[in-house]
Design a protein that fits this description.
Length: 480
């Protein structure tokens, strides 16, 4: 518990010399990549004879997670091949390493499946559509994110029992949306690309003439719900009054207050420990955001299970109060481990994995959480870990995949493709990527072929997990 803030949070990123090629040189680079890796080759996926056991890969991740929570992760992955896919980013990264790979690198999301896109509130209180999960973000080949998105659409379409034609249309829409958007970004100024965002209300107006009344009604309902999802909403739902003070309500094993983990010896030092770590996090914020946070006092802390693939990594929520008991702020502290990409694409350049997540999110998102920051802390178990911090809820919302109709998935896929292109254009060579993709649909059709082949593989991998649970190799807790 005596490790200093300076020792835990050393400077961890060294700037490099940046070369500035001409537009003509960047176009030539993209076209040269076509010869090295023809666009049609991206359809290829043939698992090697000695392919890594996907269940073993999942088990390797479990070694650094909370043992009691790992069965919940497996249980959530067992729901369907799609939920399995959501938790199997490591499995896919291992597979993508054996596919034709370009040298056109960007900041990858690393887990760009369709459920990791959604709506957010900007500081100006607009709703924008963007990527919402960056746990795996790290530099890598631009097409890896596209392949993960495309395969997720094929798999989700199968889960919804869409026809092969409908599924292919959604996949093609996502890739075409990416390709066309990248061509547009390649023609824009650097600042125009940086300022680009996808306003949800404008997008809804654009798709309104092509959509049914029921699709528009469901979308408007989702957006209205997102606008209510803030700290006050969480406060009303997740707290109770104990001895005159708000406290986070227990809901084990999904929400467990910190008091349940504290030893009698550590309890008196708990508040000091929390404040020390809050100060470490606060130091990573800009001055105005730091001052905003200083207006809140710490009240309570609880462990919270989140997501599918993240289950078992350490995640906490902190209740803070501002001017009075009706001015709550919920912060989420989420453990950041090494990205699944790093074993295959090289190190991210950050010693602190939470800093990696925050830097990647700020680079890829059009408008990020104003309280997004990071820290490295020594836990009550004596182990040093990295955590990134953000608001638990801030006008966040996502599409209900289980209720999507084919036409709705096509529209959603186009939005995801545009958004992914915008994120990649901010970090990679958009001119070279656009030149590589070209104006035809060669790349689109290749990715659609890959998506079908990988969805088949995903179903086989899902069955391996089902079998591993049936034989007792691993334990799974369902319905949690």
């Amino acid at each position: 518990m005596s490790t200093s803030h300076a020792a835990l949070n050393p400077p961890d990123f060294q700037p490099t010399v940046v070369a500035h090629a001409t537009v003509a040189e960047r176009v030539a680079r993209g076209r040269a990549e076509r010869k090295a890796v023809p666009r049609s080759k991206h359809a290829d996926f043939q698992p090697p004879v000695r392919r890594s056991d996907p269940v073993a890969l999942l088990e390797s991740q479990a070694t650094t997670r909370v043992p009691q929570l790992v069965p919940i992760r497996y249980g959530r992955m067992l729901v369907s091949p799609f939920t399995f896919y959501r938790g199997a980013a490591l499995v896919m990264s291992n597979d993508l390493a054996g596919t034709p790979t370009t040298g056109l690198r960007v900041q990858l999301c690393g887990d760009a499946h369709l459920s990791n896109f959604g709506v957010f509130g900007t500081p100006e209180r607009r709703l924008v559509f963007d990527i919402n999960d960056f746990d795996e973000t790290s530099p890598g080949p631009f097409e890896w994110d596209i392949k993960r998105l495309a395969a997720s659409l094929e798999i989700a379409g199968r889960d919804r029992q869409f026809t092969p034609t409908d599924r292919r249309q959604a996949v093609l829409a996502s890739v075409a949306g990416y390709r066309r958007a990248m061509a547009e970004f390649a023609q824009q100024s650097n600042l125009d690309v940086f300022y680009a965002s996808l306003d949800v209300d404008q997008a809804l107006d654009q798709y309104r003439p092509q959509s049914t009344k029921s699709m528009i009604a469901r979308t408007e309902q989702t957006l209205a719900k997102a606008r209510t999802r803030d700290s006050m909403h969480a406060f009303n739902k997740m707290t109770e009054i104990v001895d005159g003070e708000p406290r986070i309500k227990p809901d084990p094993p999904l929400i467990v207050p910190a008091a349940a983990f504290m030893t009698e010896e550590f309890a008196p030092r708990f508040i000091d420990w929390v404040h020390t770590n809050l100060r470490a996090y606060r130091s990573t914020l800009d001055t105005d955001r730091r001052r905003l946070l200083e207006g809140y006092r710490f009240v309570d802390l609880a462990q919270k299970v989140v997501g599918v693939g993240s289950v078992g990594t350490r995640a906490w929520i902190a209740l803070m109060l501002g001017r009075d008991d009706r001015d709550p702020l919920f912060l989420q502290f989420k453990e950041a481990q090494a990205s699944v990409l790093e074993s295959f694409c090289g190190a991210s350049g950050y010693r602190n994995h939470a800093h990696r997540v925050v830097a990647g999110q700020r680079l890829m998102q059009a408008a990020g959480d104003v309280l997004l920051g990071w820290m490295r802390i020594e836990g009550i178990d004596g182990v040093v870990r990295d955590f990134y911090v953000r608001q638990l809820r801030d006008w966040k919302g996502s599409a209900e995949i289980e209720e999507m109709v084919p036409a709705g998935m096509v529209h959603y896929a186009e939005l995801c493709g545009w958004t992914l292109a915008r994120a990649h254009a901010r970090s990679g060579d958009r001119v070279a990527i656009a030149a590589y993709l070209g104006k035809s649909d060669v790349f689109d059709r290749a990715i659609a072929g890959f998506a079908t082949r990988y969805a088949d593989q995903n179903e086989r991998d899902y069955q391996l997990l089902v079998d591993a649970v049936a034989t007792g190799r691993i334990a799974a807790e369902t319905g949690v």
